Amino acid sequence: MDHQHHHSNSHPHQHHHAEPSPPPPVVHTTHHPTPPPPVHHSAATHHETHPKNPLADKPSVRVYCKAKTDYSLTIRDGHIILAPSNPSDPHQQWVKDEKYSTKVKDEEGFPCFALVNKATGQAMKHSVGATHPVQLTPYNADHLDESILWTESTDLGDSYRAIRMVNNIRLNVDAFNGDKQHGGVHDGTKIYLWEWKKGDNQRWKIVH
């Protein structure tokens, strides 16, 4: 009996031997100094690829309708509206980007274009349907997006044209209630898509 007891006592001795292994974790500290530099790098490249930059060199256009020629298409509070013309306001300066004009045409064969605001870099986007306001979306020139493409109709007289969706020319850009019978254009008139009503509030000019 006494003999067996002595035998199990030799186990703790072996355990003692295994103790010197924990020190290696010190290597961990070299991990700390490396992360900061890459963070700086990505911030710098982000600046260079700003969506507004490609538009800076392009000539700007003014967009107005026959119902009130001294008012221009502009962006205010995230909406496209008509406001008194101010040539020095970049929110009234648009770029008529015809990058995809040879690729995408409407059913009558007219070439498409995007209207991109110089101040915000946003493009005018189709509304969700008839009698709804047009929308805004960030413009990416390298991405073909039909929902921001428009075409102009034939000359409707005095060089005014309808501006309509490239994929549904029955819906026209419309200064909401901007015709004389409905009160006319005022500062803040919203821009909708509407079926053709022949009104002066649906006849537009895009001029340099």
From TrEMBL:
List compositional bias (Basic residues) regions by residue number: 1-16
Tell me where the transmembrane regions lie.
none
UniProt cross-references to PROSITE patterns, sorted A to Z: RICIN_B_LECTIN
Q: Where is this region: Disordered?
A: 1-60
Cite the CDD domains for this sequence.
Answer: beta-trefoil_Ricin_AtEULS3-like
Q: Which PANTHER family match?
A: RICIN B-LIKE LECTIN EULS3
Query: What is the protein named?
Result: Hydroxyproline-rich glycoprotein family protein
Species name: Lithospermum erythrorhizon (Purple gromwell)
